[in-house]
Amino acid sequence: MDIAIVGGGAAGFFAAITAKENYPDAKVVIFEKTQNILSKVKISGGGRCNLTNGCSSIKELTSAYPRGGNALKRAFKIFNNKHAMQWFESRGVPLIIQDDNCVFPFSQNSQSIIDCFLEQTDKLKIKIELATGIKTIKKISGKLQLIFVGGKVPSRIFDKVIVATGGSPKRDGLAWLEKLNHKIEDPVPSLFTFKIADEAVTELMGIVVEDTLVSIQSSKLKSEGPLLITHWGMSGPAILKLSAFGARVLSEKGYEFKVQVNWTHVRNHDDVVARLKGIVAEHPKKILANVRPYSLPDRLWNYLLEKSHLSINKKWGELGKSGLNRLVNILTNDVYSVKGRTQFRDEFVTCGGVSLESIDLNTMQSKACENLYFAGEIMDIDGITGGYNFQAAWTTAFIAAKLN
Predict the structure, then answer these.
(1) DSSP state, 318?
(2) Number of helices (H) and strands (E), helices first, in the chain?
(3) What strand order describes the sheet that includes 102-105?
């Protein structure tokens, strides 16, 4: 049997290795359209490769996917994060689980994952062909003919083909699959940070508030977690999660909207009022600058006081009802105008791709083209940060490589 893997990324290599292990006598070839393989693995996690998440249940795992979570629920029963960790460790890559459940190679270097894949492909005699992008796939007597971009490389016929090309930022990059009658969900960016029009807050760059609640005005989009202030605006898990779940909504808004930040992580307004009144009663003679509620960073607290038109030298006992209300409002409903987005580090995740309606999710085989399978981000599946996108790649590639 001849098996083609289209795409030299994480899902492609995982699919190729698994397919060869499932069918030792098969000839397996990886086709990569660029001159580089595993480039996303190389830069992921700041060069450390956050390869999965150590969460304890499938329910928790599936909740991290704005799109595809229900489909993955079944798939994770076959191959989940625990299986993925065992897979890498059994192939000589010791792992470490951080306090936030992010899983990295013990070496803290993505090269460990790349070396593992290259050692496995070499050991299994899997061929890798670079600069061979696919232009068209044609059905020929139950088999599939790959026609390559440029016409310089002769077309090839395979018994099985697994497409693992990753996400396409534009719909026309999926035209070759749409021609095979696959339904395509328009791709839009996911996992991006917010550009804030108010430049004053960006002067606080580097500040992290560990527990925040964030939401998008005029929508039901909400998130929570750490928030990082950057020189262009806001980032951190809370913002990235919001961008992932709101990918389509925020795209429709042209990335211009208002984000509300609750710096206290307290949902009950009255609880915040009570907390501040307690400070007034306990420290009436202390100045506002010297008593920071909710352990807010110094510079952020002073900024919020200034934004509330309150002097940092004002005493808590002199705050009054009006001042107290202004403080409660700024702490629980601080509003910023977002005008644009920026890519998260060097990683690019897309919402969209081949619709799950066009795929048999029990096998990852195309419903429109027999013997054609999908794995990874080419499908309309994407997750938040924390190793979830790689986990979706491992899971779908493992199932696709059964070639059922």
Answers:
(1) G
(2) 14, 21
(3) 52-53, 102-105, 95-97
The residues near 119 (Cβ < 8 Å, ≥ 6 apart) are 91, 92
How far is 292 from 305, CA to CA, in rounded Å?
A: 10
Of 3, 2, 4, 7, the closest CA to residue 376 belongs to 7
The residues that bridge with 149 in the sheet, in sequence order, are none
Two tokens, residue 165 = 């090309």
CA-based Rg of the chain, rounded to a whole angstrom?
Answer: 25
Which fold does the domain 2-188+345-400 belong to in CATH?
A: FAD/NAD(P)-binding domain (3.50.50)
pLDDT band at 347 (very low <50, low <70, confident <90, very high): low
Domain boundaries, the chain: 2-188+345-400, 193-343
| Gap between the Cα atoms of 379 and 359, Å rounded | 9
- What angle, rounded to 10 degrees, do the helices at 388-400 and 10-22 form? 30
Distance CA 372, CA 358 (A): 11
Q: Which two tokens stand for residue 404?
A: 């059922």
Tokens 């807010």 locate to 296
pLDDT at 343 over 80: no
Residue 8 has pLDDT above 70, yes or no: yes
Write down the pTM of the prediction.
0.92
d(CA 227, CA 204): 12
Contacts of 49 (CB under 8 A, 6+ apart): 41, 104, 105, 109, 110, 112, 113, 390
